[in-house]
Amino acid sequence: MKIIAHTLGALATNAYLLADETTGNAMIIDPAAEPDVLIGELKKREWTLRTVVLTHGHADHIGAVNALRAAYPEVTVVMHAADADYLSDPRLNLSAYLEGPVTCEAADSYVREGDVIALDGIRLEVLETPGHTPGGISLYAADEAVVFSGDALFNGSIGRTDFPGGSLETLLDGIRAKLLTLPEDTVVLSGHGPATTVGEEKQWNPFLGGGRW
């Protein structure tokens, strides 16, 4: 599995392009904004976008969905049902308070804990990690020792919980139960900021009892 990260949009959101290089089929996790960048990357590498996965429904993670659907009409958009309303409600997805309202059509399918999102050689296990939003998910690629944590867990921090639907207790419970139990060498690729590892966050993240600060 090939992983390419692009940091996009006003809030510097990490969008991840994943591809099976044998087949040329690809998926994007959190197409934040700047669809021309994502489409250009796909065309340059001659990959075909098959799946878009949303770790949650905030505007800075869904901003390029409409353009990707237009460019790739067969693409399937996947998310957790608890965030379904975020796609059509600018107040929930926070775009009403940013540069302008962002909306898109409903997802094509919904996933929950333990589901596997598969595309050729790509396999992502769904881990429910709500708290930043009710339907927040992380995506664990065990064969690659990588977890895409969305806005649940960051390098040295965690997602905000003061937005509609947020819960600090729920977020911390999910991180501890679903993410910190992964192998310590698992690379954490977050929705914002640099990569880290599960071991680093267990030891040093101040929100999780770590002691760097």
Element order: H for helix, E for strand = EEEHEHHEEEEEEEEHEEH
Total domains, how many? 1
The description of the largest β-sheet is: 6 strands, mixed
> Rg from C-alpha positions?
16 Å
**Class inferred from helices and paired strands:** alpha/beta
Give the overall form: globular
Would you tell me the overall average pLDDT? 96
Named at the architecture level, the CATH assignment is: 4-Layer Sandwich
Give me the count of strands: 14
Task: Quickly count the helices.
Answer: 5
What is the end-to-end distance?
A: 36 Å
SSE layout:
Elements: E1 2-8, E2 13-20, E3 25-29, H1 35-45, E4 48-53, H2 59-62, H3 65-71, E5 76-80, E6 109-111, E7 116-119, E8 122-128, E9 137-141, E10 146-150, E11 153-154, E12 157-158, H4 168-179, E13 187-190, E14 196-197, H5 198-204
Parallel strand pairs: 3-4, 4-5, 5-6, 10-13
Antiparallel strand pairs: 1-2, 2-3, 7-8, 8-9, 9-10, 11-12, 13-14
